[in-house]
Amino acid sequence: AEMRRAVRGLGPFLPLCLAYGIVLLTVPRNLPAKVLRQRAPASIIRLEGRAKLSSFRSKLCRYLGGRRTTGRSVQAWTGVSEHVLERAQENRPTIENFISDFADEYNAEILFLLENMPEEDMRNIAYDLLKSTVVLARRARMESPWGESVPMDIYLNNILPYACITEPRENWRPIFFELFADQAFKQGSPDKAAIWLNENVFGQMNVSYRATYPNHHPDQGAFESKKYGFASCTGLSVILVAACRASGIPARISGTPSWTMDGIGNDLTYDVERHGLSKAGQNHNWVEVWYDGDWHYIGASESSNFDDTWFSKQASKAIPNDPIHGIFAVSFRRTNRSMVLAWDPHENITVYAEERTQSYK
Q: Is the pLDDT of residue 244 over 50?
């Protein structure tokens, strides 16, 4: 009955709507990654365009049949539970509109984000941020030379997420993709691309290291750091992780809440004074990049190779299973442990993590 009323309401526009519906519903939705990469630079069939077609399909289906007009139908169609939607509270219409417009193409990404999204983000995240996250993360994966070698679970947890730690939720991906992705792809491999980004991103953004300065807070977003011209180790790591993810490179922030004293009496004063960074009793954060089937570490805005930095010796002295003196990698996916933050020692904010201490031994 509802369908009949909807069709009658279309009146003279019914033939045109049906024609558009037939065309849009038959557009290929899953072209092979190699074809997409070959066509992407010049083709009309770009991922953004496919997302728009998906959106039009969704709206047409809603108008014709009410397929996605209620919370119940959205849940049944995507697998998103009522509990997840309830977490959004007043932001639920934004979440449901996003699901309705993009789940045809990006259902895996949407499910992962919504099931693991922090509570504060569920209540406040913007539609445009969600849109650029799923569209450009998928595009970077398909266009990067190494995209097909990245496992799905690594992609979802370390390329897709819009946040690195507790920084403000900024829509950095469209700008970073435009600025850096093409040159990163030309490097041919994720490790070489990450090195190139580390050597070029901070100069282009005019951001350098400084421990403290007016209005400083450790977990600055990339745009905040550009505004001030400075960032601490965490802020620099946020920028590098964001640039890597925008270029289809799996990356995450790692660090320790507090270095230990050197257990065999080595004098680390030279390293501390040279870099102005962490000494015993202080925290430090850096970046891990996934390539060749494993995670490798590097300091943000530092001239070094992977797994060979000024803090390698200190990292080797971290204590396993110690929430203060261990080494942890931030995880967007919910885990059974969290990372203690130097700027939130009472853990008012939950940042899920994986312990990495043994990997630095």
A: yes
